[in-house]
Specification:
This protein has one helix and 22 strands. With 348 residues, it is mainly β. The radius of gyration is 20 Å and the shape is globular.
């Protein structure tokens, strides 16, 4: 396996892996099929302090987290990383060759409710083979939870999909809203946010809405497996196509203050993207799991060209572990607040 890190500078040697951090080989990583302990780890509300409280216990005046526009001065971390001892390396510098970030969107769930997504069925995942490859992300919440505009814009469509298809079949999203952002385009193309499975719709087609304005409510209409939730998508270019226009919301939703995102790709020696490769990320207080995109309808960002992400990670050092068909590899990565850390894995 060869490796390229976006903010670390490893030495690449064919068939081996060398970097500026200690290397540890772990036992085989979990398979993509969730077990009860795994599902509990994913469901654990460790994303933000406010998210650990029930909605009723959070003050209604709580301000939304803000994203850092520039990395602050950092002190040298001394984090105990599982399996690696104490990491004493200072935070690495940001790789200036990385693409520009576009964290332009607010969270689509109103303050005081669960505004972090379900990692068990994230973008490109199949939930252990239970479902089709996911073209959006889920925000589980009770029916009636307020849903808000992620940016200023105009409602492109408001209604049901019982007669007009927006997904793999009619009545897939049920009650839905598609919002066209008015403040941004991407590579000259319009940007849309799709809200599915709504119980209520409060904004009409053609209506101008402001960022954080309540436009609907969480529900269970359409094909809403697993209980009430908001299905949220980012679409670029064509608002009606789920096979060619969806993008990973992890690269668009603003990280919480003090949190960042890991993105990367796993490819074979010819450069072909490898689907459903299991990835484990171990930090000082948490272990997270993700997989590379499973389907052809999971479209990489035009500039990043990723095939996996893992967002809502507290800043600090982590150990990434993954497996090829023959062996297990691990590598140190640093997640920087408000930024995207990049890693590229090439299986020889």
């Amino acid at each position: 396996m060869r490796l390229r890190l976006g903010i670390l500078l490893p030495i690449v040697i064919a068939g081996s892996l060398t970097s500026c951090g200690p290397r540890t080989v772990y036992a085989p990583t979990p398979t993509k099929t969730p077990d009860p302990a795994y599902a509990l780890a994913l469901a654990e509300p460790t994303v933000t302090p406010s998210a650990m409280l029930p909605p009723a216990a959070i003050p209604s005046t709580l301000a939304p987290p803000t994203v850092l526009t520039a990395a602050p001065e950092q002190t040298t971390p001394a984090l105990s990383i599982t399996g690696t001892g104490t990491q004493t390396e200072p935070p690495p510098t940001v790789d200036a060759s990385l693409p520009p970030e576009h964290y332009w969107l607010e969270r689509p769930i109103s303050n005081g409710w669960r505004d972090f997504l379900d990692r068990n069925y994230a973008y490109g995942a199949t939930a252990g083979g239970q479902y089709r490859p996911h073209t959006g992300v889920e925000f589980p919440n009770p029916i009636g939870t307020p849903v808000v505009a992620v940016g200023n814009g105009v409602i492109y469509y408001s209604g049901t999909d019982t007669e007009m298809i927006f997904g793999p079949q009619l009545n897939f999203y049920g009650n839905l809203i598609i919002l066209q952002l008015s403040d941004y385009t991407y590579n000259g193309q319009p940007i849309y946010a799709l809200y599915g499975h709504l119980s209520e719709i409060y904004a009409q087609t053609g209506q101008a809405v402001a960022v954080r304005e309540i436009i609907g409510a969480v529900g269970g209409t359409g094909v809403a497996n697993g209980g009430p939730h908001l299905h949220f998508e980012v679409r670029v270019g064509d608002p009606t196509s789920y096979t060619t226009s969806t993008r990973n919301p992890d690269l668009w939703l603003k990280p919480y203050y003090g949190y960042g995102t890991l993105a990367g790709r796993v490819v074979d020696a010819s450069g072909a993207m490898l689907p459903e490769v299991a990835i484990t990320l171990r930090g000082p207080d948490t272990t997270r799991y993700t997989w590379t995109y499973a389907g052809a309808e999971n479209i990489p960002d035009e500039q990043w060209q990723e095939n996996f992400t893992l967002g809502d990670l507290p800043e600090g050092w982590y150990t990434l572990t993954t497996r090829s068909a023959r062996r297990t590899y691990s590598e140190q990565v640093y997640i920087r607040s408000g930024h995207t850390t990049w890693i590229e894995l090439v299986f020889d």
